[in-house]
Amino acid sequence: MAQKEMESLWWKEGVIYQIYPRSFKDSNGDGVGDIAGIIEKLNYLQDLGIAGIWLSPINASPMFDFGYDVSDYRAIDPVFGTMKDFERLIKEAHRRKIRVIMDLVMNHTSHLHPWFIESRSSRNNPMRDWYIWRGDKKGEYPNNWMAYFGGRAWEWDEKTGQYYLHSFLKEQPDVNWRNPDLKKAMFAEIRFWLEKGIDGFRLDVVNFFIKDNLFRSNPFGIGKYPRPYDLQKHIYDRDRPELTELLQAWRALLDEYDARMMVGEVVAEKPHPALAAQYLGDGTDALHLAFDFSFMNNKWDSSLFKKRIEAYHGSIPKEGWPCTVFSNHDQVRSFTRYGRGDDAEKRAFVLAMLLVTMRGTPFLYYGEEIGMKNVRIPKSRIQDPVGKRYWPFNPGRDGERTPMQWSNEEYAGFSKSEPWLPLADDYREKNVECQLNANGSLLNFYRDLIALRKEREALRMGDLMFNDITPGVLSYMRSARKEESCVFLNFENSEKKYSFNASGIWRVLVSTHRKSGEQFHSFEKLFPYEATVLESIRKS
Ligand code: NOJ
Questions:
Q1: CATH among 3.40.250.10, 3.40.50.2000, 2.60.40.1180, 3.40.309.10 for 462-538
Q2: CATH superfamily, domain at 114-165
Q3: For the segment 51-84, what is each residue's pLDDT rounded down to a tens digit?
Q4: What does the pLDDT read at residue 1?
């Protein structure tokens, strides 16, 4: 394959690692992670074998939602460093063949963004229509739309006597993507980063971008939480058909540059793989990747995993490509979500193999590679606005955003001073340094798996076919040209009788229970929580 073509496939073949910059590595001792800290850890990421990093927002922000409220798209927030630091990060990452993906938060801005300050200054301001203003009688809401983080989605503005829309916090007013000037201004911001050499974007809440032009009220459905937002069917405040056209224009902009990509966050209340896949268009004219969050709430059950993978993969267009994600900065970490007592550790190995050997781009959230758990945050230290509002019913998202556990030094080697969020109580035993030195650690398992994925075309790009073997075990083939790999994942803490008798000779590539390199014709059982990937070495 030509070098250029290979490079354009980086986001399909490689593993992408999500960094929550506040919590990754603090270089200046203020207790908050920063860009220089990320640069210090690039060698670690290179050794882990990842192809790209996605950074949660680092743009200038008053931090009402920790960067998901941008006040200047072209500036780096001083808490993370300077533009020079960021340019150095791009250069240093590229030197190690690591791509850099930025979070683009463009459904809304901060209420302190100059555009919104203009927009709210008077009804006649040329930027008035860059945001969504409706209604002119206080107390009479324009419709029944609710904010995702609680309360009405409409905030009254005393000075100009109208409501503005905010799908999240009132400090995050939604922009009006139907306004051509706003769109032009946003596209100029995107181009600014493309010119700087950014390799890709993660599009925050992409399915919220366009709202119903008639502002119809949502019908009621049956929600899961006692949160008014969940009692509605969100058919008018998101997932509007006009989004297709906007994403096409967005894709055309990226296609002007080589090998750039975008991955969209598609919000849905319950598993809805077809919705995520819909935003891939025909696979060439919309998003490159779309997150399907079906796994975020499902039980540890191999048949459920299979069902959900099949549903998602089944809705991907022919030219499209899936991705796999088990954790992020908004969800309880997989270790805590799927783990029960001693089983948590073993399940983390099974999940690691599933993530890295599944067809589609794996997204790995920082700390998952060492099995970080969700931390219970005392009320006095809650930072997340969601936790502040809903505690104790919902403690918010700080628990999955705690500092990376680098070593057993004070503050886990994350910082020289007290971190912005408490550390997990297990950091002295569970950290990067000790796992690098331990045979059989989760971190070394991830490193082996990622190295294997790099080596083997079948795992990177091959077809996927499930084997129906025995309940509690997920098994599949990955094949490409002459290569064939077979994966066994025993989801249960019990031995499974199973006669593996496929034709030819098989060799262990990576396994929790078998020696790599071991060869055999057949085997009779799978060990409790065994995760094994084999390759076929000779057809008989
Ligand atoms: C989704 C992001 O992942 C989340 O962290 C943020 O709070 C909301 N979008 C609002 O931007």
A1: 2.60.40.1180
A2: Oligo-1,6-glucosidase; Domain 2 (3.90.400.10)
A3: 999 999 999 999 999 999 999 999 999 999 999 9
A4: 57
Query: Which residue intervals of the chain bear CATH 3.90.400.10?
Result: 114-165
CATH superfamily of 3-109+180-451: Glycosidases (3.20.20.80)
- Residue 426 CA to ligand 1 centre (angstroms): 28
Position 3 scores a pLDDT of 59
Question: Ligand 1: which residue has its CA nearest to atom 6?
Answer: 68
- The total of other beta-carbon atoms located within 10 Å of residue 90's CB is 17
| CB of 292 shorter than 6 A to ligand 1 | no
CB of 149 shorter than 6 A to ligand 1: no
Work out the average pLDDT over 312-326.
97
Q: How far is the CA of 385 from the centre of ligand 1 (A)?
A: 11
Cβ atoms within 10 Å, residue 126: 10
What is the CA(204)–ligand 1 centre distance, in A? 6
pLDDT of residue 540: 46
Q: What pLDDT sits at residue 4? A: 61
Between residues 539 and 235, the one the model is more confident about? 235
Q: How far apart are CA 480 and CA 367, in angstroms?
A: 31
Confidence of residue 339 (pLDDT cuts 50, 70, 90): confident
Q: Is 256 a catalytic residue?
A: yes
60 C-alpha vs ligand 1 centroid, how far in Å?
16
CA 65 – CA 80 distance, rounded (Å): 15
What does the alpha-carbon distance between residue 332 and residue 318 come to, in Å, rounded to a whole number? 32
Comma-separated ranges of CATH 3.20.20.80 domains in the chain: 3-109+180-451
171: pLDDT strictly greater than 90:
yes
Give per-residue pLDDT as tens, 480-510. 988 999 999 999 999 999 888 778 899 999 9
- Does any ligand 1 atom lie closer than 6 A to the CB of residue 105? yes
366 Cβ neighbours under 8 A, 6+ residues apart: 17, 18, 19, 20, 23, 24, 404
pTM of the model: 0.97
Task: Dump pLDDT digits (tens) for 106-144.
Answer: 999 999 999 999 999 999 999 999 999 999 999 999 999
Q: Check pocket membership of 266 for ligand 1, CB cut-off 6 A.
A: no
pLDDT for residue 457 is more than 80: yes
Give yes or no for residue 68 CB within 6 A of ligand 1.
Answer: yes
The DSSP result for 239-281, as a single string, is --TTHHHHHHHHHHHHHTSTT-EEEEE---SS--HHHHHHTTT
Residue with CA nearest ligand 1 atom 2: 204
**Tokens describing residue 360:** 């589609």
Report the sign of the C-alpha dihedral through residues 104, 110, 114, 116, in that order.
positive
Q: Ligand 1: which residue has its CA nearest to atom 8?
A: 68
What is the average per-residue pLDDT within 30-58? 98
- Which one is catalytic: 5, 140, 195, 256? 256
Q: Which residue in 204, 239, 292, 384 is the catalytic one?
A: 204
